[in-house]
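User: Second chain of the day. Same drill as before.
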Amino acid sequence: MYDLLSEAASKRPVAGNQDGSYLTLKSNFALVFGVIQLCSGSGTVFLDQAYWQRAIASRPTTAVRAYILGGIAWFAIPFGFATTLGLAAVALTDSPSFPTYPNSLSPSQVTAGLASPSAASALLGRSGAVALLIVLFMAVTSCASAELIAVSSVLTFDIYKTYVKPAAAPSSLVFISHVMICVFGLTMAIFACIWNAIGIDLGWLFLVMGLLIGGAVFPVAFAITWKGQTAEGAISGALSGLAAGLVAWLTTAYQYFGAVTVETTGEEYSTLAVAKPRAFSWETTRSINAINCDDVSSPNSLNDRDNSDRRNLPTIQDEEKEIQDDVTAEEEPAKLNGAFKIACIASFLLTLIMDFLVPIPMFLSHYVFSQGFFTAWIVITFLWVFCSTAISVILPIVEAAEFFKSLSSKIFGRKQQLREG
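Assistant: Same format as last time:
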């Protein structure tokens, strides 16, 4: 691999890279892309309703741990794919098994995301392409499922229940949520067809989404950290940020490339362009979905339901225990403060290491990997992927071991009772 990448650098040097090499972090366009990714990635995660719903539904102590581990596990995706299939696509371009042999992938094919499938096909043939298709299908369906639920919840509770029908019954809300899932799913499909028809690819969307959503990051952040934030300030801040981003984006594309087209607006340098407070008591947020004792059903009304199906549900006691745990956590600020400190320390250290301590010195030193250093890089990559596998696959099984043990004992205990009866 090292020899093939060195040979590829001599045949197809990369503009802006040290000696045109693929084995270096001294890449001008990579630096620009990294800055864009920091902005767009922060906005994408911070403004994603799916992340908010999961965080709010979890206890602070467990949410902090889950998001730290999740972030570490997620990094294996770009790190592992870029190091393996990304570099393999470069190294195998001159191989007769490469799909575009004897030509290399065009820039449009690369931005369309065809580098990984081409490398998988060259390495493993049709089975490699099928394996990558399965991976992509699982990733897309997982993300789409989370977004469908998140957007449906926003449209149902924040719009329909708040402004259209505040007294909506639970059954009505369930029906509306199902309708909204269908509406948003159809909307995603329509936009995907439109982007494909007009020549918008994944690379363009990835670079542009940051400037489209970045203006709302600080208004949302202030909404939960500053009591002086106002509704007018949040709305105007997000809209003015969007307007400023669009103006800077299109102006830079025209000044640098002389035209405003899909191609010029998708360039790295184009997308890189970058009220009086009143006190808020936070009572509004605390009252969201608050439990009202007056609304609790009476015993007689509960008896009208199918108690034979409900009395045996094991989640009732679990939910009561979780509610009690939440109350306990609220009554113990030390736990919340501890979780907050852990989140701050982990965020600072991970950002410092991943964004500055590792890449910046290697960029400034113009270092080109030796074969030994490249080998160490590959080893670290695979260790990270294995760590991600442990977090994503093994850890949930370990954490749920007691549940499965209890479930098994109840199942087999019930069977034993039936036999004895």
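The longest helix spans residues 126-164.

User: Great, on to the next one.
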